[in-house]
Amino acid sequence: MRLSKPKLAKRVLYWFCDSQYLEEVEGDLEEIFAENVKKAGKNKARRIYWIDVLRHIRPYFIKKRSVNLITQNQTAMWAIYLKIAVRNFWKNKVISTINTSGLSLGLACCILIFFHIKDELSYDEFVENGDNIYRVLNFNPSDERPYDAGGPPPLGPVLKEEFPGIEDAVRLWEDYNPTITRGDQVFVEYHFVFADEKVFPTFSFSLLKGNPETALSIPNSVVLTTKMAKKYFGDQDPMGKTLEYRGGRGEFQLQVTGVMEDLPHNTHFKFDFLASFLSVGDDDYYWGSFKPIWTYITLKSGVEPDQIKAGFPAFAQKYVPHRVEESPGFSFDLERMSDIYLYSKSARNMKPLGNVQSIYVLGIIGISILFIACINFINLTMSNSLVRLKEIGVRKIMGAQKMQLVRQFLIESGFTIFIALMIAILLSALFLPVYNEFADKHVNFSYLLDLKFVFYILLSLGVIILLSSLYPARIMASSGSAFVVRTSDKASAKAGVRSGLVVFQFLVSAILIIGILIIKDQQAFINNKALGIDKERVLVIPASKSEEAFFQELNQMPEVEYYGISQRLPVNTMNYDGRSFEVEGRDQEVSAQSCIIDLDFIETYGIEIIEGRNHFKEATKQWEFLINESAVKDFGFETPEKALGKKIIFSREDNMIGSVVGVFEDYHLESLHEKIPPMIMFKNISEKYAGWGRQFISIKYKTDNLTSFNNRIEEMWKSHNEGGAYFSFFIDDSYADLHAADYRFAKMFNYVTFIAMLIACMGLLGLSMLIVNQKVKEIGIRKVLGASVANVTLLLSRKFMYLVLIGLVLACPIAYYMMEQWLEGFSYRIDISFQPFILAFLMVAVLSILTVAVHTTKAALTNPAESLKDE
Amino acid sequence: MKGTQIGEFEELVLLIVAILNEGAYGVAIRNELEIQSGRKISIGAVHATTNRLEDKGFLESKFGEVTLQRGGKRKKLYTVSSLGQRSMQESKDLRNRLWELIPQSSLFPKLSSK
Prior knowledge:
Chain A has 871 residues and is an alpha+beta fold. Helices cover 51% and strands 16% of the residues of chain A. Chain A is built from 30 helices and 24 strands.
């Protein structure tokens, strides 16, 4: 009957109960327990045992701690402990260095990752009413990515009319790179937005000058950010002055009615100008086209978003029947504004958004690194203190008590950790500017003053202080002093815990390395993927007013291979133009991205033509269309051949009717996260809209001297466009920009992995050193008996290698699972192959072998006479 | 000595120890107490009381034989000390005296009406 007593309860009893009562109490409890097992069964008996033990916790039974400790002078000892801690720190320089640097690196890394995460979470926090503002999304269930934030122009006001629960609606319309002129200053502006008048109160943007209620209430008014006010007006007061606007919405004058603060970096908004939405001409107000217009609504108090959403299907049926017909189930949806930055499901945003997944990944990595560093610390401190058994033995003989020994160890690890923490704070402060630069953020060091974070860091440090000092203290304090003094090789006694920790370290490092390799592969895949276009050697400049003369000069330049005019560019997410139109053989309208092109656009980008012509007839009166493969499928033409000659009615009113003359290969319009949409390209032969779609000139060049080439083009362009705003960029650069967030993530991951691996190896180095130091004599004897250097090295390294190997093997499935999850975010992705696993395997194995070998070979090479002599 | 006053529960324990004679140890005392008083009593309370009574000098104790039961732990056997016996006697006398002082008329009608 004695087997199933609750062990823990008994331990509790031993812990608190004074020894003079223990025998009586324990015996009686035992008897009652045996009785109860017979009467009421094991479980109930155990429960009663517990209760009885707990009922004995009363002052009468509790151990009287020995009195003499209190009367001793402890203050003097504290000073001694600290002195010994410092001495020990200097005595084992290598171990101390490894210990502190590993821990401080890990902590610094953790602090920076914390900064990053905290910043990501702080987006749009300044908007007071953020939880009650919703962004309206289009929802198209048949699309690969069903949500899209860009809506038709009238959506906002009509929503407000139709739904009484909506307090207000604000639209923001990003205009594509208009030219803004003031006197002789001409600039192309990249962040120009038309906004409804309620924009300021709704989003709590504060105006430095002007009245937020009325600033945008009249047509042709504009509010500038401080940065722009400085750019155009210097130190003058911009209020009431005018700017000239030329862009997608026509040409008109804008009067400055306000100046607002620059937007903080942690918001999903991005604009430099807010012009009144009323300035936009009436012909743009139609439901057919979905533009980069973001519609935000605020709800009346007590109205739930679901109430509004319930009315959306009927609303869509009423106002955009063509879309509903074309893709059944088309409707609208809402997303909370405060969720946009991290959780948005929607394509097309003002600027690239974050995602909550990368936060999780980084968070996990941060915690893992802290873990690795802590494990190092615990392992090294533990092993190192076991070397000091003799010192402890002497202390015990001299009358040191258990608590005093514990206290000494606590102070020693506390001291090291304090130094590591100081270095970590210093390091993170040092690297913060680097991080800011790299992540394009403005994180401030005051972020560190986060109570929760400080609490968790201190908590984890506290835990490692306790773990690293209590364990050795317990072992030493509980063994007899004579024993401690005599034996010096007790260090290997409790290697189990240590081994487990080492395995865990390498498990984490291996996962990180496999992860980074797979991310690299995916990145390379994106870079090298047949985009469908040749993105190298293409320079883009604005269209020229006097085309003929400019092109003649271009023709004379030997470096120019081809050039073409287009409405939009292959890598261009914001200037999109989704159109709905009729095609032959389909009852419903279809929609596609459209792009007007002219001259050698196809050749410039090396777009592959699969079927039909790659050019348009000269001076034709017929509309001719090129479509891509996706469009062939989407329009229901079955094969590219069958698509040729099919009629397309692009616009009935303007008589834009023609046929398909060619099919070109799919190319990527957007980042590889997105699917390739159906696309249609044509030449604008309308006389009514003569200038329509002539926005960019793309030049394919063959020269290595880019600066001079670029300069000459600029000169030429300016001579033909007095006072025009010139810009130029290379297509491959802007393509890289599209994937900047991915690069950044990969790079961050890179650094972090490197640090994790470094810390893990440092730990291994320290451990192997300690173990080797303990075995100096053993090695000497083995060598005397004839062991070779290789023999000894192998013997010493083998155990570590097993541990590393176990870590590696365990890491593979975990890494596989995690990376599968990450890759799912891409429309075009690699399959996970064996390669990264093998590579990671080799990397970790080689690194750890090298690390361990450094010290083991050194030990193996030592002359045995040296190591054996002092006995 | 911590004072010679004893409480109601202490007095009960003292009486039980006396009843049990040679075999008075924790569990036995508790079991007898539960039978006699009809209350549920925790072993912790018994231990606290017996030990306190021992401190006060009303109980004496010695350890029994080592047996295979009770996890090899000995029983702590209590006997009432001479001081304890005197105190029990005193308290019984006191009670008897007081009983006799109760006027017949005020007590028995109530009892008989039960």
